[in-house]
Amino acid sequence: MPLKSTLRRWRLMMVLLALVPAGTVPGFSAQGQRKVLRAGASVVDITPRTFPVSSNGGMSDRSVGKAHDPLNARGLVLDNGSVRIAIVVSDSCMIPRDIIDDARKKASRSTGIPAGNMLMSATHTHTAVTVGGVFQSEPEAAYREYLKDRMAQAVIEAASRLEPARVGWAVGNNARQVFNRRWFMRPGFEYTDPFDAGTDRVRMNPPRGSSKLLAPAGPIDPEVPVLSVQARDGRPLALLANYSLHYVGGVAPGGLSADYFGEFARQVAQRVGAGEVEPPFVGVMSNGTSADINNVNFFEPGVRRQPFEQIRRVAADVADSAVQAYRRVEYHDWVPLASSQSEIELGVRLPSRADLKRARKILEASGPGPYRERRAIYARETVLLTEYPARVPVRLQAIRIGDLGIVSTPCETFVETGLAIKKESPLRPTFVIELANGYNGYLPTARQHELGGYETWRARSSYLAVEAEAEVRRILIRLLHDVAGN
Hints:
This protein is α+β, with helices and mostly antiparallel strands and 486 residues long. The protein has 2 domains: 375 residues, no CATH class; 35 residues, no CATH class. It has 10 helices and 23 strands. The strands form 7 sheets. An 8-stranded mixed sheet has the order 7-6-5-1-8-13-14-16. Strands 18-19-20-22 form a 4-stranded mixed sheet. Strand 6, helix 2 and strand 7 form a beta-alpha-beta unit. The longest helix is centred in the N-terminal third of the chain and has 20 residues. It is globular. The chain starts with a helix and ends with a helix.
């Protein structure tokens, strides 16, 4: 190109830049200096130091005396020079809000990161330590204190490792490991419920390969979106993935396990060639919207597996899908960051006087427990729910990382909700991370409430009002628009 032409173009560019308000050029500060994105990641062991401990994840409490594999809190901190955010994903079934609030406050005091810019979630492994009362498991008081300190430490350590970095995102796909677990059954199938109401129209986890199976009562979400974080020299720092799979299971009795979430973290590190990097690479699998999803293919008869075998199989397959997306990531040396949260109140489905009278009669006939019969287990839940207020506080959150959006709910959230949020989100792609910043049980849609089934049965694991899902979805979409600047 002729020199004069080049000079003319250069002068024109300078004139145009002069017309742009200071600080609005992406990647440059108000003083015209190039902005720097920094990132740090950490893995903090949250395996209990003493055994035995209570492990929830079912309707009966289990006392366990060992850990099959470590439980961890995995942290990621991003800092673009003006905004810092932190994400922590912990190997726990669910984490009550008071634990997370204390962890966020402690981490904020040590790092200066605003508590409102921290998202802390549970993976929902069903073989973790009980930290919230549900069904017949009661919290381990000493472990609760330990967990909040370790979750805070995950933020503190990640913040201490901040270094110049680049980030990018992409979406993978894996429909092989997710199946809707709520089923319509053929005429003649007898639905039962612990309240003897006789109103259910779907069955959760029906017999595999049964001739009575008709069709799933909801969709799946096969997306495996990933956020990749690298040092400026291309060294892998972290990979945060999201997948809508409840958990896998198949752990030997009597042990704790991070389930496939922990195994994914190990396998994805191998696949991206990050086994020997320093500081250590951090792989993270967050739980998407999986309230009605599991890893059981009900269309086919079951296959017997050795303990932990299915976990390894699923983790390997999903890690392959995540790495396929990882290889398509386009990186950015700087991106806008934003976080917004909203405190709302949602109604509670409190038991009536008649409900309470029936429950007490069942418990009187059943004795002091622990209980094996579902009617007695839910009768106990009914009595315990009388201590709940008519409305409960719920925290919802949205985070922006460049064009990537992340929203969180403190509930076990249905796939329908996740798909609807992704469809209306102004950011692409969008993660929906459930069981974050607290625990408020299942969040069925109004349609799924009409169908009934386990996820709708009133208990401390499912107590929000029928209209709660619509309000949560509305607020989360609004928060996405807030962080997107719309």
